[in-house]
Amino acid sequence: MAIIEAKKLTKIFGSDPKRTAALLDKGWSKEKIFAETKHTVGVNQADFTIEPGQIFVIMGLSGSGKSTLVRLLNRLIEPTSGQLLFNGTDVLKMSPEQLRQYRRKHIGMVFQKFALFPHRTVVQNIEYGLEIQGIDKKKRREMAMESLELVGLKGWENSYPDQLSGGMQQRVGLARGLANDPEILLMDEAFSALDPLIRKDMQDELIELQLKMKKTIVFITHDLDEALRIGDQIALMKDGSIVQIGTPEEILMQPANKYVERFVEDVDLSKVLTASHVMKKAATITPEKGPRVSLQFMREQGVSSLYVVDKRMQLLGIITAEDAVRSIKEGLPFESIIQTDVPTAAPDTVLNDLFEMMGQIRLPVAVIGENNRLKGVVVKGAVLAALSGNTLEEGGHAI
Ligand SMILES: Nc1ncnc2c1ncn2[C@@H]1O[C@H](COP(=O)(O)OP(=O)(O)O)[C@@H](O)[C@H]1O
Ligand SMILES: [Mg+2]
């Protein structure tokens, strides 16, 4: 089940928002509504679902409605209309007490301006939220220390914020957001004020943290590269509306309209798309099948070689049609014709690096995941097609 589900979620700022919201149904734009009514459309009928464990990125230019949208999720801003479900529960129908519990137990928040208290130590800053929840001193210190360790600040607990670099201050902010062990972490431009290199480190760490802790993260950014790097899903906003939701690949390769197209046109695809984006299903065989069945598989699938894998898809090597024929003629054991020197790459290898590799080896590249498992194969044509911005065909075998 989705952890968050929003239906036509809308926020209008002004004196009579409900009446103004009706104009959205008539298709009035943000601009027209402002011109005619002096009301500002913050979020316009946003429909989306967030699955547990996703990094859901909300991206858009300044003023597009990102902060308003994220604040609707914990009702720091009250929606004008629409629906919002958290694990199937209607957030907009919660009593004040339920809402308080929802915010305290299930949601953490990290802001761009770290908003640290200068006269509190690092650990005191992290436990602040727990303190106002009335969690006793010993317990909250325990929780804060755990959170502090998670973000790599062990040893800094008794320092003061001004003794820390910007990147470390943001870690404190992150630790504070994680201190109550929330299911959802809302991050509003959390890394936007950081220097580029520190920012990249923080992005990597967030991805790692996410893999470890399986949190659902709603991450806001106005930076496309950041969105593409960390997003599982990206919602692109314009004038309060979500203009497209999709994976980074979908946003890049299948822009929904001219606006998205322009937004992504300067992206260097070779540095963003990875092997897992362009790989196809590999034609495989298990070793006990032998050379005759191998040849038959190759004929059926129109390929001239097969990857040899064990029952758990661990890559053993590759066999060619030529060698299979030779092994039948000369009565060689099948094992002896398996070539083990196969070019491989990890799923997150960027196309730039793949392309360089393929220039030298003139062979398809096997994509290998954890435990040496074969996940797919990348052929040169797919890399070229992706780099030239062509949509890739789905499915199909290739070697
Ligand atoms: N409290 C408010 N009162 C009136 N208008 C607001 C308020 N907060 C935001 N807005 C307007 O709502 C729109 C979306 O703002 P915001 O969500 O802050 O955008 P973003 O975070 O993408 O920069 C903007 O037009 C902004 O001026
Ligand atoms: Mg904002």
UniProtKB/TrEMBL annotation:
Protein's UniProt keywords contain DNA damage: no
Organism: Paenibacillus radicis
Record keyword Lyase present: no
Protein name per Swiss-Prot or TrEMBL: Quaternary amine transport ATP-binding protein
Gene3D superfamilies xref list: CBS-domain, P-loop containing nucleotide triphosphate hydrolases
Domain of life: Bacteria
GO aspect biological process, one term: response to osmotic stress
GO molecular function term, any single one: ABC-type quaternary ammonium compound transporting activity
